[in-house]
Design a protein that fits this description.
It is a single chain. By secondary structure, the protein is α+β, with helices and mostly antiparallel strands. The protein folds into 2 domains: 3-89, Alpha-Beta Complex (Outer Surface Protein A, domain 3); 92-173, Alpha-Beta Complex (Outer Surface Protein A, domain 3), CATH 3.90.930.12. 21% of the residues lie in helices and 40% in strands. It has helices at residues 3-6, 68-89, 147-159; strands at 9-10, 16-20, 23-28, 31-36, 41-49, 55-63, 92-99, 104-108, 111-115, 122-125, 130-135, 139-144, 170-173. A 4-stranded antiparallel β-sheet has the order 11-12-7-13, covered by helices on one side. It has a 3-stranded antiparallel β-sheet with strand order 1-6-5. Strands 2-3-4 form a 3-stranded antiparallel β-sheet, with helices on one face. The longest helix has 22 residues, at 68-89.
Amino acid sequence: MSRIGQKPVEIPQGVEISVDGQNLEAKGKLGELSLSVHENVSVALDEIANDDGEKSKVVVLGPKTEDRFSRQIWPTMRTLVNNMVVGVSEGYSKKLEIHGVGLRANLQGKTLVMSLGFSHEVRFDVPDSVTVKVDGQTKIEVTGIDKQIVGQVAAKIRAFKPPEPYKGKGIRYADEFVVRKEGKKK
């Protein structure tokens, strides 16, 4: 049995979940998301009592059959449903930092323009589902309600100039540790 899959997904205040067969929709203060749950996984809305005696709504998922694939996809679907609920209620963000002399970024409308030491400026069109903020030309914050899209946009921005191991120049995540290599010895 999956430890992750057994946990029901709690629905916080201000979030509405609707289940229509295998389709699940979540609406919250930040927006709305939808997910098509895999056909080998059953999904249902339920109410459980808390320790205080209050009832709260939860989404319960389970495998329809006991074959190997159903047991593997079940916790994955539970995590995707949980990511939807957290996304529409709180949202997700990734912070990036630019290290290096002369490396900087600024936002021009919906285009992120970065000077990364190349002979040309690097331009990145920001998708509509995420917002990008630039603070002080060296700090970039990507926010949105879909965890996968936020992570993908942050990874694309980082891929333009990943941090190099000798001086640490490049774009890195704010919490990333870059292992430095020792240079040549005389």
